[in-house]
């Protein structure tokens, strides 16, 4: 798909002294891909992106043969670099954030796992400090209001039915930084909790659920808008009892999370989701835990021990898959080279849609003038070569 130039340069075509000018690459814009395009960054912002010559007066970096895409946005992430968002110190959380930035994720949500109310409230307050500093984009509560039938890597002893009063306590503890909560909406109190979340501007996500098709439709009508890691931790699609998967895929109000690591989903399942929901309703996530970007070993996810072998995380007791070791640059490359998705569709799923879900699309998620200079440089084989966040190189292309 071809795209036209997006904007004019400032000051009669002259570049500022703090400009960074990237030329020669394929640039993925909201209306398509520009061949041999130019992106200009001034300070922390994008000031130009599209076809046409670079402005005069600033050094030009030639990225011929590369792609430039928006920085990745991860709405479901528990940690990385050997560090946990669930229970680590502030410095450890920042280690995880830096690890994911080095893999192209310029915006990340910190996801918690099931715990008691006091711990989750304290942890949300601690993470809120990092949101207010600009290091995180928000807090996601995955649990404790999930089904014991579909608990995955959550401590069954700490699971409980959704309680709107407890939901409100957690929202308040996050001091305005709560972005999403995953619930099994079929449980007692589930629909009332969904309505409460919607009233407070927090995404209600259906996940770790044993709901029927009909119960899922009820939850969507009550205000749920996201499917937590679709296909995983929910009943499989059935021809007589279609369950939550069919309801989530068919409803235009739902964005479906997908973990594209080759372990959580068969390629045919991913293809089905894209075919039925369309690229505009998919969000690639990592669901990463501490081992992402770090390596095999034994880790802790909440209160449970996790063994990571050959990059696959499983509970020590029971063997359930326990998050992933995925980074979004790997998800992008797999989507392009294994799933053979159009690059524009991948960008929608990995940048545009999650930015819109978070209400941040006015600042991030696309290469447009006035937005934060968050971008990723990929080579012709979609290997990551550069990452810029807020106009500064995290990884500078060689």
Total count of strands: 22
The shape is globular
The CATH superfamily name of the largest domain is: Metal-dependent hydrolases
| Spans of at least 5 consecutive residues with low confidence | 4-12
Number of domains: 2
Please tell me the CATH architecture of the largest domain by its name: Alpha-Beta Barrel
Terminal CA distance: 28 Å
- The fold-level CATH name of the largest domain is TIM Barrel
CATH class of the largest domain: Alpha Beta
What is the CA-atom radius of gyration, in angstroms? 21 Å
If you average the pLDDT, what whole number results?
A: 94
Estimate the helix proportion, in percent.
25-40%
* Quaternary organisation of the protein chains: single chain
Which structural class do you get from the secondary structure elements?
alpha/beta
* Biggest sheet statistics: 8 strands, mixed
What amount of the residues lies in strands? 25-35%
Q: Quickly count the helices.
A: 9
Domain Amidohydrolase-related: 67-393
Protein name: N-acetylglucosamine-6-phosphate deacetylase
Pathway: Amino-sugar metabolism; N-acetylneuraminate degradation; D-fructose 6-phosphate from N-acetylneuraminate: step 4/5
Binding site for substrate: 153, 232-233, 240, 264, 321-323
């Amino acid at each position: 798909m071809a795209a036209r130039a997006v904007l004019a340069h400032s000051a009669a075509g002259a570049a500022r002294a703090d400009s960074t000018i990237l030329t020669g690459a394929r640039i993925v814009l909201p209306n398509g891909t520009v061949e041999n395009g130019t992106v200009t960054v001034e300070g922390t912002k994008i000031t130009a992106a599209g076809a046409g010559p670079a402005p005069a007066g600033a050094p030009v970096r030639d990225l011929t043969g590369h792609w430039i895409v928006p920085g990745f946005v991860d709405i479901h992430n528990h940690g990385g670099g050997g560090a946990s968002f669930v229970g680590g110190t502030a410095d450890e959380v920042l280690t995880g954030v830096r690890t994911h930035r080095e893999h192209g994720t310029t915006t990340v949500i910190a996801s918690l796992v099931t715990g008691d109310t006091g711990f989750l409230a304290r942890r949300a307050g601690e993470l809120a400090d990092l949101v207010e500093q600009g290091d995180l984009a928000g807090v996601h509560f995955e649990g404790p209001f999930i089904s014991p039938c579909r608990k995955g890597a959550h401590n069954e002893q700490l699971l409980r039915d959704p309680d709107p009063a407890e939901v409100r306590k957690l929202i308040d503890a996050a001091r305005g930084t709560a972005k999403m909560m995953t619930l099994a909406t079929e449980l007692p109190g589930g629909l009332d909790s969904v309505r409460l979340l919607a009233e407070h501007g927090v995404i209600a996500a259906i996940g770790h659920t044993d709901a029927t098709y009909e119960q899922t439709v009820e939850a969507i009508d009550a205000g749920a808008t996201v499917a937590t890691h679709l296909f995983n931790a929910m009943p499989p699609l059935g021809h007589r009892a279609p369950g939550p998967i069919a309801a989530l895929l068919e409803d235009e109000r739902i964005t479906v999370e997908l973990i594209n690591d080759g372990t959580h989903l068969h390629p045919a399942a991913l293809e089905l989701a894209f075919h039925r929901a369309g690229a505009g309703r998919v969000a690639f996530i990592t669901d990463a835990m501490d081992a992402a970007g770090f390596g095999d070993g034994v880790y802790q996810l909440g209160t449970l021990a996790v063994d990571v072998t050959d990059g696959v995380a499983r509970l020590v007791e029971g063997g359930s898959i326990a998050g992933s070791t995925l980074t979004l640059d790997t998800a992008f490359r797999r989507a392009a080279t294994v799933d053979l998705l159009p690059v524009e569709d991948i960008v929608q799923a990995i940048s545009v849609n999650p930015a819109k879900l978070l209400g941040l699309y006015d600042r991030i998620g696309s290469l447009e003038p006035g937005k934060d200079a968050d971008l990723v440089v990929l080579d012709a084989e979609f290997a990551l070569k550069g990452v810029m966040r807020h106009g500064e190189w995290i990884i500078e292309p060689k």
